[in-house]
Amino acid sequence: MFRKITSTILGLFLTVTTAQAVDHLIPRTLSYHNIESVECLALNIYFEARDEPVAGQAAVADVVLNRVLDIRWPNTICSVIKQGPISKWWKEKHGKEVPIRNRCQFSWYCDGKGDDPKNQDAYIKARDIAYSILVHEKYKGLTEGATHYHADYVNPKWSKDFTIVGTIGAHIFYRAD
Hints:
- The chain is α+β, with helices and mostly antiparallel strands.
- It is built from 5 helices and 6 strands.
- It has a 3-stranded antiparallel sheet, with no helix packed on it. A 3-stranded antiparallel sheet has the order 4-6-5, with helices on one face.
- Helix 1 packs across helix 2, helix 1 packs across helix 5 and helix 2 crosses helix 5.
């Protein structure tokens, strides 16, 4: 496996180039280069794992990055997080893209609740983790390529179709091989 990662703090620019001998991971160059990527990742960490220890929060972020690198998902952080069907009615009637409730990759994004963090300390922590993983590569690779996870108190049907990587905090992580 070949992986080249470069980063600079100014402009939050991170380029990732990968080449792996797996069909769904073809050579792909991706860029995380704006504050929007940090914000999207921070919100995902906050809503998916704010009560987790740092390792659990970083693992959730790592899954998003693993999906960005995989051609089966969109190639930007925000697109991966917001992936899901859009309501045709909202788009036609109001000109607004609204996700269909409970049909997104990350449940918080389309659960019908507000997406503004209520706990500012937890959100600041999530932002620090997002920044650290994108700019400083801290925690990168923690999930060993996991592309899926779920809380340890549920047992989704899809979990039997993937390779279990392990448990970090209250989440079980899987890789789609």
